[in-house]
Amino acid sequence: MNKKSGTIDFPLFIVILILLSIGVNMVFSASMWEDKQFYNDSFHHLKKQIIWASLGIVSMLTAANIDYRKLKNKKLIFLGMIVTILLLIIVLFMPAVNGAKRWIGVGSLGIQPSEIAKLMIILYTSDNITRKGEKIKSFGKGVIPILLIAGLFAFLILLEPNMSTAVIIVTVAIMLLFAGGAKINHLAGIFILGIIVAVIGIKIEPYRMKRFLAFRNPWADPLGDGYQAIQSLYALGSGGLLGVGLGQSHQKLYYIPEAQNDFIFSIIAEELGFIGVLFIIILFALLVWRGYRIALNCKDKFGSLIATGITSLIAVQSSINFLVVSSFMPITGVTLPLISYGGSSLLFTMVALGILLNISRQTS
Predict the structure, then answer these.
(1) Which of 41, 148, 164, 330 lies in the 20 to 30 Å Cα band around 205?
(2) Would you give the distance in Å from CA 161 to the centre of its chain?
(3) Contact of 160 with 92, CB cutoff 8 Å
(4) Residue 329 — pLDDT band, cuts 50, 70, 90?
């Protein structure tokens, strides 16, 4: 490490560990009943999550002790982008799981290239904006090249299909362009175009259109496309102020499919109530606040943009998850960072947060 490096942002570090601990406990609570029935092992998902969480902590601490400025290497980033694009192509030839091709590997050993793409688009965009300087205000020379790469990532991910992650990647790229000094009128035009593309994307895929219609009125098809949204609302409503108690959820008993994944926040609401939900939202708010604070205090533009990108990624993804489980958005497969069950998603989130912690060392 650089001799001038200080200590990590300790409040951020504590918030990360608290959210991770809550996640491990809630994965166990949400999965233990079905694990007992299907695997004859109540700890099936818990054991995997502990392994990934342990790898995540090691990865985070490692990243926190490697000077982020070493990432500002054009050749290294180019190589990372090529590898990521190849992985996004390879995954399209993998066997489909639940109608989608998102994994390379088998079972718990698999990785999700789209999770790598999230981190790589942040690194690429931050480096690109830093190198362009004032040229970022140019639509042709500044904005378009970055959007083409983000669009390529999004296109390949859409083929899986995974529209939600594609939207997140483009959204984070646009947020970085805004932070990097791109003109508002350029970004406003892109935003409008993005809405048009999203509407087309929903209309051309029957399953997306069904989800959208179910979002508007889930009770029109309570046993079909509206089922998951309705069961999630039941979980949210059953929790009350203090919840029914840890491990006591009824909705995880076959009502919410794979409750440890995208809809784990519903189980949290049912078991821990409004107080538990508020506590977790406050923790995410603290994480986002500390992240943007690090970005503002970083004297290096490259580091500031990376911090902005990582924080924005967490903010966007967690917000989407909160909105989906409470039926303010159509159902989409977006996990809750640090809390939902998952291997590569948790691992690469922890790597990203490790980089964020390292940036905080340079600002202390």
Answers:
(1) 148
(2) 16
(3) yes
(4) confident
Q: What is the CA radius of gyration of the chain?
A: 20
AA identity, residue 248: Q
Distance CA 98, CA 177 (A): 35
Report the Cα–Cα distance between both ends of the chain, in Å, rounded: 14
Half-sphere exposure of 246 (CA within 13 A, CB side): 10
d(CA 125, CA 120): 8
Q: Rounded to two decimals, what is the model's pTM?
A: 0.92
**65: number of Cβ within 10 Å:** 14
Between CA 45 and CA 262, with CA 330 as vertex, the angle to 5 degrees is 10
Look at residue 106 in the predicted model and tell me its pLDDT.
Answer: 55
| pLDDT for 15 beyond 80 | yes
Residue 38, phi then psi, degrees to nearest 5: -95, -30
Tokens 């993998």, residue located: 94
Q: Which two tokens stand for residue 337?
A: 């960072």
Cβ(87)–Cβ(81) under 8 Å? Answer: no
Alpha helix positions (H), the chain: 10-38, 44-64, 74-90, 113-132, 144-158, 163-180, 184-204, 206-216, 227-239, 264-297, 301-325, 344-363
Cα separation, 20 vs 327, whole angstroms: 25
CA distance 235 to 207: 24
- Give the tokens for residue 234: 């039941």
Backbone angles phi, psi at 111, to 5 degrees: -125, 155
Structure token digits, residue 185:
């009128």
Question: What confidence tens digit (pLDDT) does each residue in 35-87 have?
Answer: 888 888 889 999 999 999 999 999 999 999 999 999 999 899 999 999 999 99
Q: How confident is the model at residue 312 (pLDDT cuts 50, 70, 90)?
A: very high
Alpha carbon distance 246, 285 (integer Å): 23
Q: Token pair 């440890």 is at which residue?
A: 260
| Residue reference for tokens 């203090």 | 242
Give buried/exposed letters for 182-204 (b at 16+ CB in 10 A, else e): bbeebbeebeeebeebeeeebee
DSSP state of 135: G
